[in-house]
Amino acid sequence: MFGSLFSSNNARALAILRSIQFGERRPDALSISLAHSASDYVKAANLIYHSYQRRGIPFTDESEMRLLPQILTPNASVIIAKSGDQVVGTATVVGKNPLGFPMSDTMTDEEQAALFNATEGPSVEIAALAVQDAYAGKPGALYLPMAGYLIHYCRHYLNTTYIAAAIQPRLLDFYSAVFGAKPTCESLRKKPRKYKTLGDLDAIPIWTKTSELSKHVESFVNQDPKLQPLYDVLFNEPSNNPLYVYPSREKQRSFDQPKPASVIEELFVKRTDILKKIDDVKRAQVQAMYPNSDEYRWIFHVDPGLNLRKATRFNVNLKTVVVQPCDPEHAPLRQGQILDVSSSGVRLQLAANQAPLKVDQPIHLTLTVSESTETLLKGRIVRTLPDNKGYGVEITEGDGIFRDYIRWLRQT
Predict the structure, then answer these.
(1) Where are the alpha helices (DSSP H) in 224-279?
(2) What angle in degrees, to the nearest 10, is found between the helix axes of 2-18 and 172-179?
(3) Distance between CA 330 and CA 217 in Å, rounded?
(4) Of the ranges 28-37, 110-119, 306-315, 327-336, which one carries the lowest mean pLDDT score?
(5) Which of 218, 271, 273, 309 has its CA 20 to 30 A from that of 63?
């Protein structure tokens, strides 16, 4: 009985591997690396969001980004595949961190303890995986080259013992065939769990051991030498692959350096309100992972007196006229009001029936300070706030009073 079952599983896996086309055209000027700039992170998050929409995954966000909170920590790396300046594929590698693992709500406490607290070595989760629509269903063109990068990064940079993920049930046979992945519980093959943070989507938590990955694929190459390209793309040395760009610190066995404060500010303060939703205890734990410097402290700092300072230090109830600076003489004026001021910018509320603004749109704000005094601020829209609460605006130029106020806020 067990022999016939193994034979059946082996035959199914062989059929899946033989169906992979390695001659399919890859993206032009393809390179695979870690994300470093805020622009790379934003493009990757946009790609994931729109991939979710295409696949019917119930996740929506005003920012049109799927950005994992764990990216706030140094123990999460975002892998990106780029064709020129365009991000065409991405995956996030998440290590142990104060915010937990994204897939944890698909696992029991016992499964989490066995996998993520393993005594043999650290475990990571692969989350937020997406490729551009043109390469969906063509793993040989993009997904498997990305997987080759990811495997080398996990094995030689992170010294990872286990790699885990939460996948849709229909993908289990593919992940089992290519990576030897197993569900955390055999009963999940017939009865998946719910991924609560993704609208109760059916999901199966899986795992594989990094030290066994190459042996798994090699066993199929021995059965069918035509599968050698699979082994090559997953396990060839990076020096033989010009597509891959790795950090230069391989022997340090750790994640990349802490993310720059400017990147954290752009992603989690200006473009989303993810940081704002994290409770004070966890926020302090994340802050402790970064250098104890002013540029990081102001981002993570929680100060209940901030609203009082806003009210007493700067008039935040100012009537505003918004002008598009591309053509100040002919652009439509919009009436509005600045409601909040923070060290990262302002919150702008347009009056009723005003034409909407777009993210990344440059704008001028003419503030009426008094009956005889106006001041001009220049900035850009960095995010649209939910429930018609306005726009987050980054101020790039302002008069002395406003500039001094922002500098004071950052220092406190």
Answers:
(1) 228-235, 261-265, 274-277
(2) 90
(3) 64
(4) 306-315
(5) 309
Task: Please identify which residue in the block is written with the tokens 């123990």.
Answer: 75
Of all helices (H) and strands (E), which one includes residue 6? helix 2-18
* Tokens encoding 132: 């551009």
Higher pLDDT, 119 or 172: 172
Backbone angles phi, psi at 282, to 5 degrees: -70, -35
List residues bridging with 87 in a β-sheet.
82
Dihedral (Cα; 66, 72, 76, 81), 10-degree rounding: 50
What DSSP state is assigned to residue 269? I
DSSP 217-235: HHHHHHH-GGGHHHHHHHH
CA atoms within 13 A on the CB side of 163: 27
Q: How far apart are CA 310 and CA 242, in angstroms?
A: 52
- In eight-state DSSP terms, residue 119 is T
Cβ pair 89, 132 in contact under 8 A: yes
| Residue tagged 């594929």 (tokens) | 89
Tell me whether strands 201-209 and 162-167 are parallel, antiparallel or unpaired: antiparallel
Integer Cα distance of 117 and 138 in angstroms: 35
Token pair for residue 219? 């066993």
pLDDT of residue 342: 65
Q: pLDDT band for position 366 (50/70/90)? A: confident
Beta bridge partners of 405: none
Q: What is the mean pLDDT of residues 170-179?
A: 96
Mention every residue, 6+ apart, whose C-beta is less than 8 A from residue 284: 300
Residue 197 half-sphere exposure, CB side, CA atoms within 13 Å?
14
pLDDT tens digit string along 136-163?
999 999 999 999 999 999 998 999 999 9
- For residue 19 the two structure tokens come to 């169906």
* Band of residue 359 on the pLDDT scale cut at 50, 70, 90: confident
Full-model pTM: 0.76
Q: What is the CA radius of gyration of the chain?
A: 25
Only one residue has tokens 């193994």, namely 6
